[in-house]
Amino acid sequence: MNQKEKLERKSIIFHPLLFAIFPVIAIYSQNLNLLLPKDIIFPILLFLGFGAGLWILLYLIFKDLVKTGLITSLSIFLFFSFGHISSILYDSIKVITDKENFVLIIIFLIILIISARYLIKTKKPLNNATRIVSVIAISLFIFPLATTGAYFFQQDYSIDEKDDINTNFLTDTGNLSQFPDIYFIILDTYADYNILKDLFNFDNIEFLSYLSEKGFFVVENSFSNYHTSPLSIPSMMNMEYINYLTDEVGIDSTNRYLVHKMMDDSKVMQIVKSKGYVTVNFDSGWQPTRYISTADLNLCGKNQLFNSQVIVTVIKNTMLNPIYVEIFESDYRERILCTFSKIPKIQHEIDYPLFVFSHMLLPHGPYYWGPNGEYVIPEKATLEGFSKDKEGYTNQLQFTNNKIKEMIDKILTESDVPPVIIILSDHGTMLNWDPDNITDEYIKERMSAAQFIYLPGEGKDLLYHGITPVNTLRIVFNTYLGENFEQLEDRSYFSDDNALYRWLEVTEFLRENKEIDVGFFND
After folding, report:
1. What confidence tier does 468 reach under pLDDT thresholds 50, 70, 90?
2. Cβ partners under 8 Å of residue 19, min gap 6
3. What is the pLDDT of residues 177-213, one digit of tens each?
4. Number of DSSP helices (H) and strands (E) in the chain, helices first
5. Residues near 18 by Cβ (< 8 Å), separated by ≥ 6?
6. Selection from 424, 268, 277 nearest residue 346 by Cα
7. Which of 405, 407, 423, 424 lies closest to 415, judged by CA?
8. pLDDT single digits (tens) 490-505
9. Helices in 250-368 by DSSP H: which ranges?
10. Phi/psi of residue 116, nearest 5 degrees
């Protein structure tokens, strides 16, 4: 055994593997309120395989464990840090194009080639360098692991249910053929008529007229119960106000584990399944509603492992950043088109009544669609920066309107039993959003949502202007499924994204223009 092999054997080399998985651990520690531990298992294995594969390939070429380990760590560091450095440049020069990205990639490759050539050619022992790099790699994990450990130590993941809904639902299904199919479709960030007209200079009357002609009840003075999807969707799908969660997680918490669980195992799904319904969920592209474990069918999901939130976030910060839009836009478009195509067809494939749940990230950005369905490649396919793009939003809204009309026409003309169709938004838009200064204008914009409801027979007579989503399915279940739920007061609550469960009731402010204390959030 020569001296070099002895030195290699004395050195336990692991830093390339730590650098490979660090981006996943860092993202997880920064999004503990959004992600579950299972969400990072596949990304860790994927990037661990990437790092190990690169290291093995280099070792097979150069036959030196220490040198190839250092080259691998440098390669991984440069690859994963590209997006962060690009963002710093973006903040400095305000504009960064493909040209600037290409120049930055060339600079990174030059650094890598020069450094790798030096490491391969040098005769100096590199064990000290290996130890230093190993210490750096270990040090990177101290803060995210400490943050993660402290977070889980403080969490209580039980739900103390405090509502008036009897979970012993009627299970006498009777004649299933008489139960209507129920379509519950959430259009994310779909604003109401007045907001569209006042803030976006867009008149949505043509679409609303179409809905009215088809027999839909278009709710006026429509407001959401909560200001964000992680709160409003659990409230809708459990037909209850969820303010009691403050007692479970704390007033300043950002914990979303419980509300995600309420979406995955909702009372609405329990009720319809007890009646003999087949429950169907369509992949939204958003982690909590991509796959619902209690649904009988989950459709239009594709590449969920590779197209997860964690992997997308990691990749957008790598050297693949300039082309990452092209990498994922195909799956995004296919998922949306599949959903619109499949929803009206599923009634012909199932012999039981259907409860169809679809949370569509439309007209929510990024904006991939023109008004007539043209393909658009957004400058930034992230969830940052698109909220103030009026043209992009209204273009995608028109695309959404056109696809919704096609879908409604097919459902109504092809249904044997007149269906229930509920199309609503979870919250409004964000033109007036300023994370450092919540204003009354922003609260009204964000809480102004939309509801379009089609109830066959006499059901429409039970609807009223100002109804909020917490009551919508209560009326449907009482009317068509023989339930007897109380009607709740229609209330609206706003909270800060940094303290989700610190509520400010804004009902009177929204409906009667009464003053509210916006300092409640800005103190």
Report:
1. very high
2. 51, 73, 76, 77, 80, 137, 140
3. 689 999 999 999 999 999 999 999 999 999 999 999 9
4. 20, 9
5. 134, 137, 138, 140, 141
6. 277
7. 407
8. 999 999 887 889 999 9
9. 257-264, 267-274, 287-290, 309-315, 324-345
10. -65, -40
Locate 54 and state its tokens. Answer: 């690169």
CB 191 within 8 A of CB 425: yes
Pick the closest to residue 503 from 517, 489, 487, 488 (CA basis): 517
Q: Which amino acid is at 403?
A: K
Query: What angle, rounded to 10 degrees, do the helices at 257-264 and 229-238 form?
Result: 40
Q: Are 242 and 162 in contact (CB under 8 A)?
A: no
Q: In what order do the strands lie in the sheet with 420-424?
A: 217-218, 451-454, 420-424, 182-187, 354-360, 278-282, 297-299
Q: Locate tokens 């033109």: which residue? A: 431
Residue carrying structure tokens 């009354």: 440
Instruction: Indicate the DSSP class of residue 347.
Output: G
Residue type, 12: I
Q: What is the DSSP string of 458-511?
A: GGGGG--TT--HHHHHHHHHHHHS---PPPPP---EEEETTEEEEEEE-HHHHH
Closest CA to 362 of 168, 137, 185: 185
Task: Compute the distance between CA of residue 421 and CA of residue 388 in angstroms, rounded to an integer.
Answer: 31
Residue 385 scores a pLDDT above 60: no
354-360 and 217-218 as β-strands: parallel, antiparallel, unpaired? unpaired
**Whether the predicted pLDDT of 268 surpasses 90:** yes
CA angle 66/71/74 to nearest 5° reads 125
According to DSSP, residue 180 is labeled P
* Residue 500 φ/ψ, nearest 5 degrees: -60, -30
Mean pLDDT of the region 60-84: 89
Other beta carbons less than 10 A from residue 217's beta carbon:
20
Question: Residue 242 has which token pair?
Answer: 């969820």
Contact, 233 vs 359, CB < 8 A? Answer: yes
Contacts with 68 (C-beta within 8 Å, 6 or more apart), sequence order? 55, 58, 59, 61, 62
Go through 267-303 and write b for each residue having 16 or more CB atoms within 10 A of its CB, e for each that does not.
bbbebbbbbebbbbbbbbbbbbbbebeebbebbbbee
At 94-121, the pLDDT tens digits run 445 566 677 888 888 999 999 999 999 9
